[in-house]
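Per your request, structure below.
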């Protein structure tokens, strides 16, 4: 098997008295979009800065395709930071050529690629406009193009959909998936768990600088399943159902049912069938990643009941 494109081995980063990254280890599967998740301030950006060699670990090692990370590897990485950084007085075409040349492309190759990418995003008529004249969404798309124009082996996206309308968010999501299908490794960093469930097969959850979960999304959700089911039905439910089971979110056509310790789904179904309930649908409800993360964080710190609250 080929080496993981990125492997992080007990990496630690401290700023003063603040431990930003606390001996974190993980390996990025070569065939999966990796979600690097956690609330604001969890340590995601500090990790990314070390992977991109902007900063160096205080201890631990990072490997790129099995090689110790070096100053050469950033030429194979594309990084879209959460804080955008385009030069607003430059023209769009000029700006893309400048950034592409910094990544080693010839002027001719950079020009061809820039024009192709602008056409994909419907921005081909923006070549001679200044960046500051574009909408925020257009600027974000231009920065995404600058991030991928050199065909990086690894693409790191930090909150890539922030500020995009649904149409352009869908367009960018399509391009991200296309790049992934073509072999580009992708790290997707966000605190928006619903976006992760749409895009990522594998996740690393961190909080207060420490890794608290790692694995395939489907495996993690199943690991934290809590015996809750959704029943869709026609007719009336027997009164004894509410006596034996906890009924949640009832409607005339459906209800969530929480099993208690020792109860089995088959026994629930048998009760429904014995009472002639017309079952339209019955499925297990797996917890969302947001629910899993909150459960993990509150187990570690019972006072932190809303780890994604960024209203400070």
């Amino acid at each position: 098997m080929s080496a993981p494109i990125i492997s992080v081995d007990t990496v630690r980063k401290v700023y003063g008295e603040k431990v930003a990254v606390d001996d974190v280890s993980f390996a990025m599967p070569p065939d999966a979009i990796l979600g690097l998740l956690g609330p604001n301030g969890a340590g995601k950006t500090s990790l990314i800065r070390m992977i991109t060699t902007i900063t160096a670990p205080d201890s631990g090692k990072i490997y790129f395709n099995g090689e110790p990370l070096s100053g050469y590897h950033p030429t194979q990485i594309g990084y879209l930071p959460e804080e955008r950084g385009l030069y607003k007085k430059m023209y769009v075409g000029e700006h893309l050529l400048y950034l592409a040349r910094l990544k080693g492309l010839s002027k001719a190759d950079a020009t061809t690629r820039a024009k192709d990418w602008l056409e994909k995003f419907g921005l081909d008529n923006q070549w001679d406009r200044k960046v500051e004249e574009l909408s925020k969404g257009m600027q974000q798309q231009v920065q995404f193009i600058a991030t991928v124009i050199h065909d990086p082996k690894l693409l790191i996206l930090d909150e890539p959909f922030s500020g995009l309308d649904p149409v352009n968010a869908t367009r960018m999501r399509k391009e991200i998936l296309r790049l992934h299908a073509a072999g580009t490794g992708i790290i997707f960093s966000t605190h928006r768990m619903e976006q992760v469930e749409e895009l990522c097969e594998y996740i690393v959850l961190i909080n207060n600088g420490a890794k608290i979960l790692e694995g395939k999304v489907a495996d993690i959700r199943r690991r934290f399943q809590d015996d809750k089911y959704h029943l869709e039905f026609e007719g009336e439910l027997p009164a004894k159902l509410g006596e034996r089971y906890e009924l949640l979110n009832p409607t005339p056509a459906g209800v969530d049912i929480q099993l208690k310790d020792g109860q089995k789904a088959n026994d629930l179904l048998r009760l429904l069938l014995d009472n002639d309930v017309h079952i339209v649908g019955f499925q297990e409800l797996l917890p969302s990643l947001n629910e899993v993360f909150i459960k993990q964080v509150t187990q570690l710190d019972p006072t932190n009941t809303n780890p994604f609250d960024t209203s400070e």
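The mean pLDDT is 89.

Regards,
D.
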